[in-house]
């Protein structure tokens, strides 16, 4: 099964930026709708952004205008550029296929994003 590895998280001050990466062990981005998700402490995992096979993107209201999802099919890598970060963006960020649980790959370890002064 294809494995997903997220990276790029860290500690950043409010208003700062981070760029997350999602590397896949196989060529899946061009043939699947992919998404970024996040899970804050004590909360359920939520959808953040998604990208279609054609490259169109969609964002959760809470991040629209601040986050940008992109991908490089040749590198089997997907990115999430996060600008104007807020404390409420603090969470572990994951990537995976978009869709029901039955269609998703095994979750990776995620990457921790902490927004704090």
Order of helices and strands: EEEEEEEEEE
Contiguous uncertain segments of 5+ residues: none
The helix count comes to 0
Distance between the termini: 40 Å
Widest sheet, order of strands: 2-10-9-4-5-6
The share of residues in extended strands comes to: over 45%
Shape: globular
- Number of DSSP strand runs: 10
**Rg measurement, Å:** 13 Å
Reported for the largest beta sheet, the result is: 6 strands, mixed
Helix content range of the residues, please? under 10%
Structural class: mainly beta
Mean pLDDT: 95
Structure overview:
The protein has 117 residues and is mainly beta. The protein is 0% helix and 45% strand. The protein has no helices and 10 strands. The strands form 2 sheets. Strands 2-10-9-4-5-6 form a 6-stranded mixed beta sheet, with no helix packed on it. Strand 5 and strand 6 form a beta hairpin. It is globular, with a radius of gyration of 13 Å. The model has no long low-confidence stretch (mean pLDDT 95).
Summarize the structure.
The protein has strands spanning 4-7, 10-12, 18-24, 34-39, 46-51, 57-59, 67-72, 77-82, 91-97, 111-115.
What is this structure's SSE topology?
Blueprint: E1 4-7, E2 10-12, E3 18-24, E4 34-39, E5 46-51, E6 57-59, E7 67-72, E8 77-82, E9 91-97, E10 111-115
Parallel strand pairs: 2-10
Antiparallel strand pairs: 1-3, 3-8, 4-5, 4-9, 5-6, 7-8, 9-10
Features:
about 120 residues; mainly beta; six-stranded mixed sheet; four-stranded antiparallel sheet
């Amino acid at each position: 099964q294809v494995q997903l590895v997220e990276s790029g998280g860290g500690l950043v001050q409010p208003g700062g930026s981070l760029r997350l990466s999602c590397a896949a062990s196989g060529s899946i981005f061009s043939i699947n709708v992919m998404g970024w998700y996040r899970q804050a402490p004590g909360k359920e995992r939520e959808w953040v952004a998604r990208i279609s096979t054609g490259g169109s993107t969609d964002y959760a209201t809470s991040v629209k205008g601040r986050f940008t999802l992109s991908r490089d099919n040749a590198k089997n890598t997907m990115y999430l550029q996060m600008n104007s970060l807020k404390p409420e963006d603090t969470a572990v960020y994951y990537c995976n296929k978009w869709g029901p649980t039955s269609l998703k790959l095994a979750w990776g370890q995620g990457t921790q994003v902490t927004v704090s002064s």
